[in-house]
Amino acid sequence: MNMIDTIDALRQHQLVILRRLRKSPLTEFELVQEIAAHSGFTMDQCEESMATWLTELRDEGLLWSGALTNEHGQSMLAAALTSRGKELVC
């Protein structure tokens, strides 16, 4: 699949995620705010779906995502673009 086909296949929330990651890695909390502000999804919908959305984009090779955990066992997701993701949106 070439880059044009990839962009055409992406949904609005996926494009928002990739475009917001152009400057730097972001946490799930920052991404939830961005998607809610730039799509038809509510904050609650974004919070519930974020892990799935990041996994889908990771499986496509467009971003890296993983959990960051502190010493108290609390965790959050974070994401950054892969080289393929950068080629697509930069």
Largest sheet composition: 3 strands, antiparallel
> Gap between N and C termini, in Å?
18 Å
Label the structural class. alpha+beta
What is the CA-based Rg, rounded?
13 Å
Strand order of the largest sheet: 1-3-2
Strand content: 15-25%
- What helical percentage do the residues reach? 55-70%
The shape, in one word, is globular
Q: Give average pLDDT, whole number.
A: 90
Please count the beta strands (DSSP E, at least 2 residues each): 3
Q: Would you list the SSEs in sequence order as H and E? A: HHEHHEEH
Which regions have little confidence, pLDDT < 50, spanning 5+ residues?
none
> Number of helical segments?
5
Structure explained in plain terms:
By secondary structure, the chain is of the alpha+beta class. The chain is 56% helix and 18% strand. It contains 5 helices and 3 strands. It has helices spanning 3-9, 12-20, 28-37, 43-59, 83-89, and strands at 26-27, 63-69, 75-81. Strands 1-3-2 form a 3-stranded antiparallel β-sheet. Strand 2 (63-69) and strand 3 form a beta hairpin. Helix 3 crosses helix 4. 26% of the residues are buried. The model has no long low-confidence stretch (mean pLDDT 90).
